[in-house]
Amino acid sequence: MIPIIGVGDFLFLSIFLVGAVKFGLGQRRNLVALSSAFAVGIACTLLAEVFFSLRGLPALPFMCVAFLLANRSQLRLTPKELCAVVKVSVMFAGFFAALGLAKALHLL
Amino acid sequence: MSELLENGATTLGRRCLCSAGWTAAFLLFLALTPLKLPPWAALPALYLTAVVGACGTAGLLSCFTRTDRDWSNLLVGVCVCALLIGGANCEAVSRWVAWASTQGGAALPLPSTTLRFSLNALLVLATNVFLVGAAVCGGELVAKGLRAPSYLVMAAVVAAIADTFSVSVGPTSKLAGSETALRHLALHWPASAGAA
């Protein structure tokens, strides 16, 4: 038995699926898209361990990309919403990059 | 009664088709991946593990996320559990038998003669199901608070960034080194002999 998938992955999977049902984005299409992304994530994790000895790959990026691609026609953002998404993304990316840098420099 | 059986069969048929299509897509991905292949001896076990894990995930998610829980869902759930236990315990089982079973998706359990039940496998399975159930319930609670589809975009972007950080240098990478944490927070998937 190999531990490769975290509980958080299922949490977000559920959020996406329930959100898709709630907003009428298509349950079947999203289930297939997210399941496929999950399968690809599992395959990549196994292959990464075999070929590169990497212990774990993030599964959420696979699922997030699959979810956004599957619903790209329905998830149209207003300029205001797009601005908010970009702002939050940059803020989070900056925060995590700073944390990573601090760890790399042994400041934390 | 006959209508109920017919509906159940239709649902099971759809699940089978979905699982088979999904497995085919997964194999297509593997076939198109321009990577050097692992040694031949490790191939069946590696791919079988991924396919069993993938089918099991689809079956469980399908059971948990459906609102109209009926007997066919329960049957699929039981079959998925049997499949996972079988995958966890199959050491000498023919890969073709396992392949045929996984092709049928969650609806076709491995023949009982190939299963060797153990308490450990049942405990791991129970833990997995509990964790998936808890995560799905938590996700449902969070998703109920969403007020617009744009929230999902925000959640997707932020989750992808956070998970990438966490797995590379964050808390998840630390947890990966702890056997105790892994035992409680990660889901264990069946690995055929030679894959793990």
Kindly describe this structure.
The complex is a heterodimer of chains A (108) and B (196). In chain A, 73% of the residues lie in helices and 5% in strands. In chain A, α1 packs antiparallel against α2 and α2 packs antiparallel against α3. The radius of gyration of chain A is 17 Å and the shape is flat. The mean pLDDT of chain A is 79. Chain B is mostly helical and 196 residues long. In chain B, 71% of the residues lie in helices and 2% in strands. Chain B contains eight helices and one strand. Chain B is globular. The C terminus of chain B is likely disordered. Chains A and B meet through β1, α1, α2, α3 and α4 of A and α1, α2, α5, α6 and α8 of B. β1 of chain A pairs antiparallel with β1 of chain B, so a sheet runs across the interface.
Radius of gyration of chain A: 17 Å
Strand content of chain B: under 5%
Q: Count every beta strand of chain B, where a strand is a DSSP E run of 2 or more residues.
A: 1
Structural class of chain A: mainly alpha
**Overall body shape of chain B:** globular
Say how many strands of chain A there are: 1
What structural keywords apply?
heterodimer; A: 108 residues; flat; B: 196 residues; 8 helices
Could you give the topology of this structure?
The complex is a heterodimer of chains A (108) and B (196).
Chain A: E1 2-6, H1 7-22, H2 27-52, H3 60-70, H4 79-104
Helix pairs in contact in A: 1-2, 2-3
Chain B: H1 2-32, H2 43-65, H3 71-89, H4 95-103, H5 119-144, H6 149-168, H7 171-175, H8 179-185, E1 186-189
Helix pairs in contact in B: 1-2, 1-3, 2-3, 2-4, 2-5
